[in-house]
Specification:
3 helices; about 190 residues; alpha+beta; Protein Transport Mog1p, Chain A; 7-stranded antiparallel sheet
């Protein structure tokens, strides 16, 4: 668990640096003093157990066979901002692969595909699908995505031992997150 959370922290750190975004305002997210552990997550999906992460990282573990018991999903919300370009996203993904492989000797990470919706306005989504093979030979399929909306932006990471499960889990959370990043704040 500690290694998993550490890897997630590296990924979110790189995403944050690449995006140069700041966390969503305190009205939408807990302040660092409150901590995410004392708050309910802004988005949750049935069948997933919430495990508070560091600061504003929200981590979930699957507890049902349909989402692949042991699969993980995590996200972080950011203030709305200018979406990055597809070229910037590709570059950030190359940096992430290098950082992951440097962090764990023997780890092999392959980018399976990078997708982005058309256009440059908001809402906008970009995602990468990766296969990570541990030094012991275990496969992990990862979908990492950035969602840009008029209200907020979000980074999501789905990981599972099967590619279809990772993609399906990502789709569940992405649908819910799109509502958050696009829905205007209540008055």
């Amino acid at each position: 668990m500690r290694k998993c959370v550490s890897t997630l922290a590296v990924l979110f750190l790189i995403f944050g640096l690449a995006l140069q975004l700041v966390p969503v305002a305190a009205s939408a997210q807990p302040s660092p003093a409150q901590g995410a552990a004392t708050q309910s997550p802004p988005v949750a999906v049935k069948g997933w157990r919430y495990v508070p992460g560091r600061s504003d990282l929200h981590v979930f573990r699957c507890e049902q066979t349909k989402c692949g018991v042991g699969s993980r999903m995590s996200y972080r919300l950011y203030a709305a901002g200018k979406p990055m370009t597809l070229d910037q996203f590709r570059g950030s993904q190359e940096q992430i692969v290098k950082a992951l492989e440097q962090k764990t000797p023997g780890l092999k990470t392959t980018i399976l595909g990078i997708d982005a919706d058309k256009g440059a306005g908001m809402p906008r989504a970009m995602k990468v699908r990766r296969l990570t093979v541990s030094p012991a030979g275990a496969n992990e399929y990862v979908v990492s995505a950035l969602l840009f909306g008029s209200r907020a932006s979000a980074s999501l990471i789905s990981s599972a031992s099967e590619e279809k499960v990772s993609n399906d889990n990502y789709a569940q959370f992405a649908l819910a997150m799109t509502t958050i990043v696009q829905t205007p704040a209540s008055r």
